TrEMBL record, chain A:
UniProt family annotation: Belongs to the binding-protein-dependent transport system permease family.
Record's subcellular location: Cell membrane
Gene3D superfamilies: MetI-like
Membrane topology value: Multi-pass membrane protein
Keyword Cell wall biogenesis/degradation: no
Cross-referenced PANTHER family: GALACTOOLIGOSACCHARIDES TRANSPORT SYSTEM PERMEASE PROTEIN GANQ, MALTOSE TRANSPORT SYSTEM PERMEASE-RELATED
Sorted UniProt keywords: Cell membrane, Membrane, Sugar transport, Transmembrane, Transmembrane helix, Transport
Species of provenance: Amphibacillus marinus
Protein name as annotated: Carbohydrate ABC transporter membrane protein 2, CUT1 family (TC 3.A.1.1.-)
UniProtKB/TrEMBL annotation, chain B:
Gene Ontology annotations of biological process type: maltodextrin transmembrane transport
GO molecular function: ABC-type maltose transporter activity
Stretches that traverse the bilayer: 20-36, 43-68, 80-102, 137-163, 201-228, 240-261, 292-317, 338-358, 401-421
Annotated protein name in UniProt: Maltose/maltodextrin transport system permease protein
Record's function text: Part of the ABC transporter complex MalEFGK involved in maltose/maltodextrin import. Probably responsible for the translocation of the substrate across the membrane.
GO cellular component terms, A-Z: maltose transport complex
Keyword Signal attributed: no
Native source organism of the sequence: Amphibacillus marinus
Automatic annotation (TrEMBL), chain C:
Chain segments annotated as coiled-coil in the UniProt record: none
Gene Ontology CC: one annotated term: ATP-binding cassette (ABC) transporter complex, substrate-binding subunit-containing
Chief place of localization: membrane
Listed Gene3D superfamilies: Periplasmic binding protein-like II
Keywords: Cell membrane, Lipoprotein, Membrane, Signal, Sugar transport, Transport
GO biological processes: maltodextrin transmembrane transport; maltose transport
Keyword Transport attributed: yes
Protein name: Maltodextrin-binding protein
Example of a GO MF term: maltose binding
Organism, as annotated: Amphibacillus marinus
Length: 280, 435, 420
């Protein structure tokens, strides 16, 4: 076969695969959108776009006095935002220390914690509950944020450390010779160079609280303190009657902005993650 | 002035005794430093100990009493709370012990130095040295403290539970919980309920972990390589679409899939299988099909992360490698096998290992999709139950918390041993050798 | 240097051990027996506020808001309520109670009563015989555990038949008629279903019990957890009857509650088995076409159903148990029970009210209650829900006898694992 024809055929094959993937990816999402437009409460509808479609569920979320949706949205933004700020700061501090300094526990510290996190601790949620109750942070967003931030450190610090290791030490040593202090080197030299991986850590820490309903269900009790994931999950966690359509509507409204953020951060995501996860 | 200072130090050389410094610093934090005439540091240390004792002294005493007895009067003492307080007390003691250790070490070290004629630097200078030395600790401490409370402390609690008799009938407030040693582990081997089911659940857990994870890695790899092909246009759009599953909350996706795969009312059978092939596949009622669907969903959910990761690595592989290979007349497959693949795996091994261990305990997908079902005759776990979801159900049905903790502990040991082994292997592979 | 370091470590250890021994002493027990002062009316001093956990449902909030306001008006005690889903209340209470953020009063169905009592989370109530006479015996029995009454009964719940008058003129009398009706309707239009029941043990207990199967042997309200009758000849016969519906295609295999509600609301089902919680939802969807009836006859009598009673319970951790009980009694008095029924459509277990219900839509409900058997209230009940697996296997074509033998063995193993 002529090489050019062969190349064209190949390319056609590649595009076919992408098209197929696109269908597999988008079909369930379209289906979920269809469900959110269904008037009733049932999960099952005979057609992908319901015959009597309506925006009642969206309307309910925003206007019904029983709906706490906007409040949940706000709570989730607060939790995710605070978690991003705190995590990025603490994680970079930790990673910087691991990357540049020698201290007790440096060699295996991060790995030890990574391994400890592999133990399933569903039962141990009780312990977190009692601790937060003791220090008065139960049913508060602050308590939730602190647990998230603490839990994410090993994995993300390990990622960031990997990235920082790729930044030549010569840079900070030169700055030190010029008289820059520890913090100056960190803030002026390291941080600007580490932007891509910080974007990744920020993204991870923004998403995790947004998507998790297990931890909030232990820590948060008052509906006005619920995060989105927990509130949405409660729509469908009733013993006798579920509200799948309302759930779908609420989920779509969160998935779309998140998808947009992902698209915009894609560049950082790919470069940051790579260098972070790769260079040991 | 300087002569006089010199003289005082000279006289100190003979007198200053490190052992006294040590004993003093053991008696009370900071006393050794005061003996060494490091007044500011001594006072700071002593103040720290006083504050610590005042703030936590009573709590620690109560906690230690709590964790040793787990309560004495049923109805008044709450064993579980006491256990938690005890663990917190132990953590506080550990923090204090570390501080005390450095306190004593510092006192002895400085006393020795003084004995040998060392002149203490001025305050500003010594602060700078202190800052220099402790900088990495200053950086890691805030994160470390949070980490201890968010990761280590819950784990300690789960481990402790495994050695108690905490179940429905030994529950506060009516009854107290007691320490029972290894009894739960012993019972694991004698209770018939486990023996019949453990093997089948365990083997499915392994299959699930290996197949689902390998699929998501392979698909991510495959797509990353395709997108990376120089001839492909609209790369950005394609990448965006391919990353999309990552951007939808997983629990939402899983529940939507569960609805779509309903045997008779779901979209897959009624819109695709029936019109096209005229068959109705028992997705949720036949364990084999449910397993297949679960693996499919996990692949759908998991590949975008791998895809993003590999896309980045691919871009970073130097083109020199390929040019050299082209000169040798290597085929495309050979290039992939000998250049691309090793680069990718080498670079991302620890992340891939974590993918495997995460799936081993991937409770969410199993439970949300079909609650571990469908039921299978002859065992008390569902056809798609993995170890962790099975333990969860048993706990829920029987309220036997201590037994569940014991099994969780065993599961954790299995996963972590695997992980340690793999981490070491990749480390050795990278010739770093230490972990 | 090293030598002294080791020595210092040793001293340090000694010190720490010493510290632990010195400080690890039992707390002061002076507060024990700090009984509240009793006022002239026999009640302790009024608290400013009582905390109540209600079910996490809009309708629960609707009904209780007004009742709580009335109580505040009457006594001056403010009521703070929190919405917590019924299945989660016990677990939350076990933590929130000792943590100091628990309720004074909480709400539970009787099948969790055993769990609550065994853990000591609920305290017994004191009722005079006069007060007791206002409730049906069944409701009080449901909340009696080892001789003590633990709940102020609010509603009695069971499932019964709902039917769509535009599809069938009246509810078929026997289960055999139901099967014929189903097949006729499906032949007429394959998008229609004659009769749907969710494949869950809760609903299918009718088939089991109708032929003589039972959960635990019972005598004078005392259950014997070692005698399980879910794999006896009656249970087998009943579930084989049910299996006919599946094998004949009358009931699709993967019906779920959601599917069932959706199809019935769309007007595609002749008759379904469901409970009062769906009354408003179905009513809205079907309007005047909706009617109710007791369950069809199985084995010659109206099929028995599980009856659940929902009650207010007083928390062990309440500082104001006397007032919590007062509130519980207030919420279940005649006036409030009547109001509860008006708003929620759930029947209060008070004979006076039950006798005066004339709304035809309640015909099925009120009649079925009389044919119900109470759900056992002992903690051994929770493993029994494994019967859902048995149902699933039977739906998928499993041989009934083998399946039941197997699952009942599992249940027995789990009961053993619960300990004692």
């Amino acid at each position: 076969m002529h090489p050019k024809t062969r190349s064209r055929l190949e390319l056609a094959g590649i595009y076919t695969i992408f098209a197929l993937m696109a269908v597999i990816i988008i079909y369930p999402l379209i289906w979920a959108i269809g469900m959110s437009l269904n008037q009733g409460t049932s999960l099952y509808s005979s057609t992908i776009i319901p015959e009597n479609w309506s925006l009642t569920h969206y309307q309910w979320l925003f206007t019904d006095e029983r709906s706490n949706y906007l409040l949940w949205y706000r709570n989730s933004m607060i939790v995710s935002g605070m978690s991003v700020l705190l995590s990025v700061t603490l994680t970079t501090f930790t990673a910087y220390a691991f990357s540049r300094y020698n201290f007790v526990g440096r060699k295996s510290g991060l790995y030890t914690f990574l391994i400890l996190q592999m133990f399933p601790v569903l039962m141990a949620m009780v312990a977190i509950y009692i601790l937060l109750n003791l220090i008065g942070l139960l049913d508060t967003l602050t308590g939730l944020v602190l647990v998230y931030v603490g839990g994410q450190i090993p994995f993300n610090a390990w990622l960031v450390k990997g990235y920082l290791d790729t930044i030549p030490r010569g840079l900070d040593e030169a700055a030190k010779i010029d008289g820059a202090g520890h913090f100056t080197v960190f803030i002026k030299i390291i941080l600007p160079l580490a932007k891509p991986i910080l974007a990744v850590v920020a993204l991870f820490n923004f998403m995790q609280p947004l998507f998790d309903f297990i931890l909030p269900s232990i820590i948060l009790r008052s509906p006005q303190n619920y995060t989105l994931a927990l509130g949405l999950y409660n729509f469908i966690n009733d013993q006798f009657s579920n509200n799948f359509t309302r759930f779908a509507a609420g989920s779509m409204l969160i998935a779309i902005p998140v998808a947009v953020v992902y698209v915009f951060l894609q560049r950082f995501l790919i470069t940051g993650l790579t260098a972070g996860g790769t260079k040991e | 002035m300087s002569v006089q200072g010199h003289l005082t130090i000279k006289t100190n050389v003979s007198k200053h005794n490190p052992t006294i410094a040590m004993v003093l610093s053991i008696i009370f934090a900071g006393f050794g430093q005061l003996y060494n005439k490091r007044y500011l540091k001594g006072i700071a240390f002593a103040l720290f100990e006083i504050l610590f004792l005042v703030t936590f002294g009573e709590f620690i005493g109560f906690g230690i009493w709590g964790i040793t007895t787990l309560g004495e009067i049923a109805g008044l003492d709450h064993s579980v709370f006491l256990l938690v307080y005890g663990l917190l007390a132990i953590i506080l003691i550990a923090f204090a012990a570390v501080f005390y250790f450095f306190n004593v070490k510092d006192a002895v070290k400085q006393a020795k130095a003084i004995k040998e004629g060392w002149i203490a630097p001025k305050l500003g200078e010594s602060l700078r040295i202190f800052y220099d030395k402790t900088f990495p600790y200053l950086l890691t401490t805030p994160g470390f403290i949070l980490l201890i409370f968010a990761v280590v402390f819950p784990l300690m609690f789960a481990i402790s539970l495994a050695f108690t008799n905490y179940d429905l009938y030994n529950s506060p407030p009516r009854n107290l919980v007691d320490w029972v040693g290894f009894e739960n582990f012993g019972r694991l081997f004698t209770v018939g309920l486990w023996r019949n089911t453990f093997v089948s659940v365990f083997s499915w857990t392994i299959i699930w972990t290996v197949v689902a994870t390998t699929f998501q890695i392979t698909l991510g790899l495959f797509l990353a390589v395709l997108v990376n092909d120089a001839r492909v246009k609209f790369k950005k759009t394609i990448r965006t679409i391919l990353i999309l599953p990552w951007a939808v909350p997983a629990f939402v996706t899983i529940l939507i899939f569960a609805a779509m795969f309903n045997d008779q009312f779901g979209a897959i059978n009624s819109d695709i299988m029936m019109p096209l092939f005229n068959i109705e596949v028992p997705w949720l009622t036949d364990p084999v099909y449910t397993r297949v669907v679960l693996i499919f969903i996990q692949t759908w959910l998991g590949y975008p992360f791998i895809f993003a990761l590999f896309s980045g690595v691919l871009q970073s592989i130097s083109s020199d490698w390929y040019e050299a290979a082209d000169m040798d007349g290597a085929s495309r497959w050979q290039k992939f096998q000998h250049i691309t693949l090793p680069h990718l795996l080498f670079a991302t091994a620890p992340l891939l290992i974590i993918q495997y261990t995460t799936n081993f305990n991937n409770f969410n997908i199993i439970y949300l999709f079909n609650e571990g079902g469908p039921a299978v005759q002859g065992q008390n776990a569902g056809g798609t139950d993995i170890l962790i979801s099975w333990v969860y159900k048993l706990t829920f049905d029987t309220n036997n918390y201590s037994m569940a903790a014991a099994i969780s502990l065993i599961i954790g040991l299995i996963v972590s041993i695997f992980a340690i082994f793999q981490f070491r292997k990749t480390a050795a592979f990278k010739e770093e050798g230490n972990l | 240097m090293f030598k002294s370091m080791n020595r210092s470590r040793f001293f340090l250890l000694l010190l720490m051990v010493g510290l632990m021994i010195v400080t690890a002493c039992a707390p002061d027990r002076d507060q024990v027996g700090d009984a509240p002062e009793i006022g002239e009316d026999g009640m302790p001093a009024k608290p400013d506020e009582l905390v109540v956990w209600i079910n996490d449902e809009d309708i629960a909030e609707d009904v209780h808001l007004e009742q709580f306001a009335n109580y505040t008006e009457e006594t001056g005690i403010e009521i703070k309520f929190e919405r917590i889903a019924l299945p989660d209340q016990l677990e939350e209470l076990a933590l929130a109670g000792p943590g100091g953020t628990g309720p004074d009063l909480f709400f539970q169905p009787q099948d969790r009563l055993g769990d609550a009592v065994v853990q000591g989370l609920a305290v017994p109530l004191t009722y005079t015989d006069e007060e007791l006479a206002n409730f049906t015996d069944a409701a009080i029995e449901a909340f009696t555990y080892e001789g003590d009454i633990y709940g102020a009964p609010v509603a009695i719940e069971t499932y019964f038949a709902f039917y769509n008058k535009s599809l069938i003129d009246e509810a078929p009398e026997t289960i055999e008629d139901v099967l014929t009706m189903s097949q006729d309707l499906r032949e007429h239009d394959s998008d229609l279903y004659g009769f749907l029941v969710s494949p869950e043990f809760y609903y299918l207990y009718s088939f089991i019990n109708g032929y003589g199967g039972y959960v635990f042997a019972e005598e004078d309200g005392v259950y014997d957890p070692s005698d399980i009758g879910l794999d006896n000849a009656g249970a087998i016969e009943g579930l084989e009857k049910y299996q006919e519906f599946i094998t004949s295609g009358a009931i699709p295999r993967t019906v779920t509650v959601d599917v069932l509600d959706g199809l019935f609301s769309e007007g595609r089902v002749g008759m379904v088995v469901s409970g009062p919680w769906n009354m408003p939802i179905y009513g809205q969807a079907l309007g005047d076409d909706l009617a109710t009836a007791p369950l069809p006859q199985i084995n010659g009598a109206v099929a028995p159903s599980f009856v659940g009673v929902k009650s207010w319970l007083v928390s062990y951790y309440s500082d104001n148990q006397a007032w919590a009980q007062d509130l519980a009694k207030f919420l279940t008095n005649d006036e409030n029970s009547d109001y509860y029924y008006e708003v929620t459509g759930e029947l209060p277990p008070r004979p006076e009210i039950l006798d005066n219900i004339n709304d035809p839509i309640y015909a099925g409900y009120t009649e079925q209650v009389e044919h119900g058997t109470p759900m056992p209230n002992i903690p051994q009940m929770s493993p029994v829900w494994d019967m859902d697996d048995a149902i699933e296997l039977i739906v998928n074509g499993g041989e009934v006898e083998a399946v039941l033998t197997d699952i009942v063995q599992n249940i027995k193993d789990k009961i053993e694992l619960q300990g004692q």
